[in-house]
Amino acid sequence: MLILLLAAQAAQVQPAPAGPTLGASDHRVDQPIAAPARKPDFADEFNGARVDTTTWRFDGDYNKQGWFNHEKQYYGPANARVAGGTLTLTARRETPTAPDSGGQSYTSAKLVSRDTFGYGFYEVSARLPCGRGMWPAIWMLPTSGTWPAMGEIDIMEMVGWNPNVVHATLHSEAYNHVKGTQRGADVTVPTACTAFHRYQLDWRPDAILIGVDGRSYMRVANDKPGGAAAWPFTRPFRMILNLAVGGDWGGARGIDDAALPQAMRVDYVRYWRR
User: Fold this and answer.
1) 152 in catalytic set
2) Most buried residue, 105, 126, 212, 227, by CB count within 10 Å?
3) pLDDT band of 178, cuts 50, 70, 90
């Protein structure tokens, strides 16, 4: 995003993903991308009655002082529900009363995986919210380090004022939106807000590909000088699922309170180790 706390530690900070029109078109591709034909090494199919807190933690670390990029939400567990085989993260126009509230006027939910995952294939089936001011994201960060040197993988972002356009972006010390050097691409998914789609990441030592429904639309190769400054994607990251409200990108055209509540729905999260 446009504003980040660059000195924050990843163990505490979850900097929000990339900002408007920041995907670099020179990393656009159109090629097949496919999950391995075997059982995933990790999967949450959300078939239980509640969020599995041995698999996910609710992230409310910055509720009191406020979240990054001028986002407007309070993140709480009450906004995450599992029913009918689906995880639902709901954004609402309401004033939280919990002791860690920072005076927000909106609530939502954010989950962070307890396990870390590295090279391999990732697939998240999700249906996105399209209300103006919504900012759903599926993304990854390591457990420690300073942004952007620690690296960030944005598998899917969308903002409600530009519905059905999904973005994939990588951030590193040498390639990030603060410097205007970030690497990524975007693609239009006409039914992103009305149907489930498979958002996919193929993470290899030599390249990262991101796609939707079996077609990769972004490929970034590990072919630039600079070592970890160019390619910090050599250690395990945690998976993050969240629905932000407002912010420098999500709220660039305001928030449509009349459209709330809005929900991001996730059918499953799967990972195949490589």
Assistant:
1) yes
2) 126
3) confident
